[in-house]
Amino acid sequence: LCRAVPACRGFSMELDTSTCKLHGADISRADRGISSATPRCWRQDAVRGVATSDVPIAGDTSASVNSVSVPLPRQAPDDIYAFEATTDGLYTFDTCGSSLDTWLHIFETTQSGDLGQQLVSCDDCGQCGSQTVLEGVYLAAGHYLVVVDGYQSLGGQYMLTVTSHSSPLSSVAATVEATLQCGQSVSGDTTGGVHSINISSVAVSPQRTYSFSVTSSDLYTFSTCGSVLDTWLHLFHVRQGGVLSIVSSCDDCGNCGLQAVLEVHLNPGEYQIVVGSRGTV
């Protein structure tokens, strides 16, 4: 696919925890089937194997069971793989080449090996149509579970490849443009902004930074759908002393093409969301 060059650098972003959008329709929190960070259904014996960086996995969920049912109450069978991030950094989870319309979920693993906090869940992310490609997911060194799911009730053949990227994170002082509230939409332009966060060699564009507070653990959505800019979102937890700890970094995630829609579970605290782009625009 050819990446469109934006004619201008405007963007818009909406932060919303009460509703989410699926194919243009608003879906209430109850309809999403999310009451906590814990999935409705989880079978620990459903872990099929271990995913290793740069080693493709071929599988078929047709004969599998519905072990994990998030973020929507679907009945699609799924396969689960254990994955160890050996270093802090960016990782890509790629199902391009699958015949299945894939939906990927990534969870932390608890000390007992159970599903922990959901870090990201995405359908049709990336540049491979209905085959999800989660690109630029930041993971701290540790153990995770990768769930290969299908859309609605679909099962079928899939390919999964995990790739690690060497990308040292660095930052410079950034001006916080505004403090966001849940349900608030803001519009802006990265032109003239500062490249404050260096998280990838292919994302060196000017950026704009916003702050927000989380008062309750929940699933939060950051949507730049409607932007002209090909957006890349970086989400940080602001720790004691103002130290930034990256939570997630996502390019082309969600169902809005080149405009990132990031969905992530957050605990109470202070956060910053950085709006940037791929390349230098």
Quick tags:
five-stranded mixed β-sheet; 22 strands; mainly beta; 281 residues; 1 helix
H/I helix tally = 1
Distance between the termini: 19 Å
Q: What is the residue-averaged pLDDT?
A: 75
Oligomer: single chain
Morphology call? globular
Order of SSEs, N→C?
EEEHEEEEEEEEEEEEEEEEEEE
Instruction: Count every beta strand, where a strand is a DSSP E run of 2 or more residues.
Output: 22
What is the fold's blueprint, element by element?
Elements: E1 10-16, E2 19-22, E3 25-28, H1 29-32, E4 47-51, E5 57-60, E6 79-85, E7 89-94, E8 102-109, E9 115-123, E10 133-139, E11 142-150, E12 157-165, E13 170-171, E14 176-179, E15 185-189, E16 197-198, E17 208-214, E18 218-223, E19 231-238, E20 244-251, E21 261-266, E22 269-277
Parallel strand pairs: 4-6, 14-17
Antiparallel strand pairs: 1-15, 1-18, 2-3, 5-12, 6-11, 7-10, 7-12, 8-9, 8-11, 13-16, 17-22, 18-21, 19-20, 19-22
What does this 3D model show about the protein?
By secondary structure, this protein is mainly β. It has 1 helix and 22 strands. It has one helix at 29-32; strands at residues 10-16, 19-22, 25-28, 47-51, 57-60, 79-85, 89-94, 102-109, 115-123, 133-139, 142-150, 157-165, 170-171, 176-179, 185-189, 197-198, 208-214, 218-223, 231-238, 244-251, 261-266, 269-277. The two termini are 19 Å apart.
